[in-house]
Amino acid sequence: MSPDLFFQYLFAGITYGSIYAVVAIGFNIIYNATGIINFAQGEFVMLGGMISISLLHFMPLPLAIASAVALTMLIGAAIEILFIRWLQSPSVMRMIIITIGISILLKEVALHIWGESIRSLPYFYGNEITTFSIGSVHISPQVVWVILASAVMVAGLNLFFKSTPIGREMRACSANRTAALLCGINARNMVTLSFMLSAGIGALAGCVMSPITYTQYDSGSALALKGFTVAILGGLGNSGAAVLAGILLGIIEAFSVSVVPLAFQDAISIAILLVILFVKPHGLFGSGDAARLKDF
Amino acid sequence: MSPKTSPANETMLELSGVHKRFGGLHAVNDVSFKVPTGSIKALIGPNGAGKTTLFNLIAGNLPVSEGSIHFCGQSIEGQKTYEIARMGMARTFQNIKLFHGMSALECVMVGRHSRSRSGFFAGMLSLPTTWKEEKAIRARSMELLDLLGIADLADTEATSLAFGQQRAVEMARALALEPKLILLDEPAAGLNIYETAEVARLISAIRDMGITVLLVEHDMSLVMDISDEIVVLSFGSKLAEDTPANIQQNEEVIKIYLGEDETV
Amino acid sequence: MLKIRNLDAGYGKLRVLKNISLHVDPGEIVTMIGANGAGKTTLLHTIIGLIKPTKGEINFLDTPCCRSSVGQIVASGCALVPENRQVFASMSVEENLLLGGHVLQKREGRAAVHKELAHQYELFPILRERRNQFAGTLSGGEQQMLAMGRALMSKPRLVMMDEPSTGLAPLIVRDIFQIILRLREEGNTVLLIEQNAKAALGIADRGYVLEVGKVIVQGPSDILLANTDVQRAYLGREKVTE
Amino acid sequence: MKTRNYLPLIGLGVLMVALHLLTVWTGTQYYLTQLTMSAYYGLVIIGLGVLMGYAGQISIGHAGFFAIGGYLAAALTTRNLEPFAQNWWVQLLDKAGVIVHGQDIYGLSQMTFTPWLACIVAVTTAGLVALVIGIPVLKLKGHYLAMATLGFGTIVYRIFLAMPYFGESDGITEVPGFDMLPFLTISGDMSHRVLNFYASWTLLIVGMLFLINLIGSRVGRALRSLHSSEEAAEASGINAGRFKLKVFVLSAIYAAVAGVLLTHYNGGIGPSEASMAKSVRYVALVAVGGMLNLWGTLIMGVGLTFLSLRGVFGSFDDAVFGTILILVMLFSPEGILGLKLRPLLRQLIIGGRA
Amino acid sequence: APAWAGTVKVGAIFAVTGPASFLGGPEARSAQMIVDEINKAGGINGDTIELIVKDTAGHSEKAVSFAKQLIEEDKVVAIIGPSTSGESMAVKKIAEAGKTTLISCAAAEVIVNPVAKHVFKTPQKDSFAAQMIFEEMQRLGITTIAITAGNDGFGKAGKAQLEKMAPTYGVKVAISETYDSKATDLSALVAKLKSDVSIQAVINWSVVPAQAIIAKNMRQVGWEVPLFQSHGFGNIKYAQAAGVAAEGIIFPCGRLLVVDQLEESNPQKARLVQYKSDYETKYKEDASAFGGYAYDAMNMVVEAIKKGGNDRAKVRDAVEGLENFAGVGGMFSFSPADHNGLTIDSFAMMTVKDGAFILYQGK
Ligand SMILES: Nc1ncnc2c1ncn2[C@@H]1O[C@H](COP(=O)(O)OP(=O)(O)OP(=O)(O)O)[C@@H](O)[C@H]1O
Ligand SMILES: Nc1ncnc2c1ncn2[C@@H]1O[C@H](COP(=O)(O)OP(=O)(O)OP(=O)(O)O)[C@@H](O)[C@H]1O
Ligand SMILES: [Mg+2]
Ligand SMILES: [Mg+2]
């Protein structure tokens, strides 16, 4: 393999990976606050893209993105308040299934609002074919935006969960809800907040990747599957690990193109995930100890 | 009932040079002792001394870092928890572990698992043998609940029982296994003085049924009254092994565990 | 400080507490004893707001709190050391304590929390040693101490303890009772549930005896200690085996 | 006690006959087609129901097993062996009588395996795959298990979608009928409709009988116990891993059998049968029916599938389904049969405030 | 009035939702539009038409179920759809057994080859599209190519056709790859193709956003070989989505896209103009070739009902007898041996210039 090709694969992998990672981060937030995986996370990504595209008719790009993020956060909060807040001690399985239901519903609503056509935001910088080159390798500036966004998110979230009281409180709610209540923490508000946060992050992800991947009413599920894969691969709850895992998976996928037919690409990457899970049942960077101590 | 056990020199359980490390923490440090068949042996020591860890090692829930454990003369190394259980070792848990959504009776019936045989296909086809067996399991489990004085709660959901009642169900489940050795982790925790006395009576009765008992407990009145021998652990190491009377006099044990005036 | 009148509570159809009335005055240690399943835990859960009463009223610091959320009740200065410890298993010991300081931080700010943290480490030195370990891997006794420390982190006016000596070594049990006494000296009020009735009554000012959801006897500790019924039911000090 | 246990099963049998008579009486026999299809899906769903509800193992990849059954049956009974006709193994199989000679759609002669052989191979393969994949997968817990099964399902889907042998995105059509018994051919042909209806429902009833027996037995109790606390179950001598694996394989076989038969009935199979959406739907149907309520699972599984196959919800099929799912989970997490109106109202009134 | 006066039922099986909704959605709308207009105008010979649309979401087992239901229960006179090849193949036999006309809107040629008595299809043959592309390649002197295709029915059929026909035109297929139709980025694939310096052109066959993505990815790495697309590119949305990267893409397509550039004498012109303006006024979105497939199918059924009334056999014969029928996809002339009825003329070569489709005039 020529060095040129090698680097081109590498950067293709980084592109994929950063897209996966930016979705995966959203999963981790709700997981950290409630211990559940929100299967509707992909739909937040889709909503972010769709809303910002619609808003772009009325306002400049940065404002459209900001409003889309804010709106999606409201939707996230509304979903939590409508469907989850008033449940009495719901089991993990029940929550998973409710979020599956929400995912189906959001998709259907989007279909009936926006139809089945594909849309996208314009490139933030330049246009579809603008690239800058490192040596002979070409990279679209939008990829840099995606990477930048995930880096900022990871750093921000790490700081948030590890070092701020409110982040700690969120984790407490997932670790033991009763105990969190006894500490005077308003567990319900924490969950609402986590939904808002992950909806916002999902929406932002949806905006930055929309120029690359396009947005369609059902683009959420495919992204969610990849995001979920990556979140698990890294070890649930750890956003930094998710980014590493995402980029790793992206690179594996990119290089796999050179050896196996592209049609098997997904099968390959998921098979790799399974093998890793069998060897490290809590993901690459997950701690078995911590996972064992959770209730499920 | 007189103990129908074999001579005391026979060993039910033997630990030799057992170590357990968690990362940097040496939770169990070179512990050796024997539990003679038909005896009640107590394991005491300050909090965090490694008692529960030791139980987990014996029952196969954790792998030993170093050393060996023999049960009925057989090494348990590499044996799975359920295999050890089938060899005849039952246990209760310090943090009660009952089955959600099951009645107290059903929880105990689960305990009969390894003493019954009907398998997957027999169950699917519901062969007559399975009915008979099922009936026997039910009857035996009821007896055990009765023995523990909670027969009236048989149909109550186990996890909604009060703390003390849950302990009783756990004990019944362990007994249902018809064990040779039973490991009890703080059976009297959360019980008042009368209930504790009841437990003491029960443990003696268990021994009289021919079951060897290894016990962790902080209630000294219970431990001193019923155990034949006591092992004291401290910071993972064995500090002393002796009869109750001698342990109560042991300076060091008093200093780190019993406290000055706790001699009954 | 705490006044309860004609309280009824339970789980679904099951009525566990029947017409309970009691009060706790500032600076007191009040103990509650009763057999397994009498409803002691249920009572504490009702006070702290985890269970909503079906009848009756609860006043804490002269404000009714039947309708308040757990968060509000805790913020107003009531803390519970729960029965089965309920530590945040997948978080470190120190994080557990800091979380206990949640309402304190809101009330008095960060500095107060750190001061209180140091105070708890002083009360329970073992916790300082284990500060970075996952709470779930602590031994049973260590977890009990952590639960107490966490509850105390909020500098509560009233501490309710549900069988704090359960599973603790005799030496530590004594320490715990010392700590409870010390809490009173520091001006705290304590509502204590204990199986070890004798010890509990020994340090308490007053006591209540609960039986199948009803208060059957109450009064100053020394009187309860002398009460023959109580003696027979809870204090029997004779040999535990025949 | 025994008879009471089986009463609903007898009821199901009576329902089967009643449904048939009703369609005859009202002249609406065409309903039998979709009732037959629903029964096969019902079989998948009750198998999954035992795995999820009783053994507590979620599987978001069950469509994969259905598809392994269906696709193998389809491929083996349609793919031409003529190019290999000279190979010793083909000749051997031909002598053994497991190869049929026929014509393809262009009228050329072709050789294929008999449906019986295909069926056995397909179901065995699904069982073996479940066994091999189950050993590592079932060691995982919670979301990791969900991911692993989801991943398994995705791999199966991808493979069927990528391999020309399995028809890629078009799937396999022109699958012949399956002469299962001298009087019974599994096929969508109108002339076989009534018998096929009875065959599918009988299979469903027998499948249900087995599962009810199983969960009422010692094994069923063991399953429920390890669902709740594996540690305590193992301490009682229960080999948790082995039981989980057995149930996993059993439910895979249920799915594969349904896949084989439905494929013959429909005359083909497409990749949508292996898709993640399908797996998710199976899981959701189990949940809607009630995790620990096999009868609820059966009723919801067959009922909702029937409605969906009739297209009564139009392009809102998914939306309606999502709504039902959310409503059931909100108001009756025990499944639709656990729905009691009074507590529901109370929860609505108090729950909203609390 | 004849015995069948009243309503005539027509069935429609489309993937209105699900992964193939970009086909099924416009198809269902186009067919419904015709029915609404006819009914508003008083129906056919006084009969109203009832269109029963069934949404399969792309699941072939549902298509099977619906086909049986429509034929037996609803007693429709004909069925239009399904949208995808897999579904169409799955219901082909059912239509035959039920002796009901089925006009498929899916691409694959096997649907009408071998010819089944009752099964027709409206989309142009892949082989014509491939033929046009290869002829253009011959003109450009291209001898080595790469083929990429989506993993849906459209991509599968097209890829098979291309691989089969390439040798006839002296073209060597260096690399042939199938990608996931939900792919979000194809730069790794492009890198692989580009590394093979012998490749002189790329043919991409898909109907999904991926065809815009591949165009973008090729231009981003500065790879300037000609990119040919299939008639699936016939939707201005994709050209817009690819933005400047779409410039210069060459593809064969029906004339709907360039209706403004057609001469008045073109026999299709009236039909195309009508479809485009009706659809765009009614649904406020761009008309596409996909909707055109169903539009043609529905119009054929209408035409046949005019002749055959509510009689399945007569309707079938009437469809087979259609000749020089001006459709969106081309001029249809069915015969017992040809149930697609189109010639290569149905296609025109087009390209993208300044974000719009124009007729391709060669280099
Ligand atoms: N998985 C683990 N990882 C790290 N440390 C552990 C783990 N399990 C136990 N420990 C530590 O090992 C020591 C012994 O714990 P163990 O539970 O055996 O104590 P114990 O003697 O049962 O105490 P108690 O009487 O309080 O229950 C404790 O300090 C505990 O923190
Ligand atoms: N979650 C629950 N659901 C239903 N019933 C419950 C629940 N929790 C407790 N109970 C029942 O309420 C009664 C009182 O229980 P509670 O836990 O208050 O007793 P307690 O006095 O604390 O006992 P212990 O000393 O054993 O802790 C018991 O009979 C118990 O079975
Ligand atoms: Mg312990
Ligand atoms: Mg209690």
Report on the structure:
The complex is a heteropentamer of chains A (296), B (264), C (242), D (354) and E (363). In chain C, 41% of the residues lie in helices and 26% in strands. Chain C is built from 11 helices and 10 strands. In chain C, β9 and β10 form a beta hairpin. In chain C, α3 runs parallel beside α7 (140-152) and α4 packs across α5 (110-123). The radius of gyration of chain C is 18 Å and the shape is globular. Chain D is 69% helix and 6% strand. Chain D contains 14 helices and 6 strands. In chain D, a hairpin with a 2-residue loop joins β4 (178-181) and β5. The two termini of chain D are 42 Å apart. The mean pLDDT of chain D is 88. Chain E has 11 helices and 14 strands. Chain E has helices spanning 21-40, 60-73, 85-97, 126-140, 153-165, 187-195, 210-220, 236-242, 269-283, 289-308, 312-320, and strands spanning 7-14, 48-55, 78-80, 101-104, 119-121, 144-150, 172-179, 201-205, 227-229, 250-253, 325-326, 331-332, 348-353, 356-359. In chain E, β8, α7 and β9 form a beta-alpha-beta unit. In chain E, α4 (126-140) packs across α5 (153-165) and α7 runs parallel beside α8. Chain E starts with 6 loop residues before the first strand and ends with a strand. The chains are: A mainly alpha (296), B alpha/beta (264), C alpha/beta (242), D mainly alpha (354), E alpha/beta (363). The interface between A and D is large, with 46 and 44 residues. Bound molecules: adenosine-5'-triphosphate (ATP) (2 copies) and magnesium ion (2 copies). Residues 40-41, 83, 162 of chain C line the site of one magnesium ion.
Question: Which keywords apply here?
Answer:
heteropentamer, A: 296 residues, mainly alpha, ABC transporter involved in vitamin B12 uptake, BtuC, two-stranded antiparallel ribbon, 2% strand, globular, D: 354 residues, two-stranded antiparallel sheet, 6 strands, binds adenosine-5'-triphosphate, binds magnesium ion
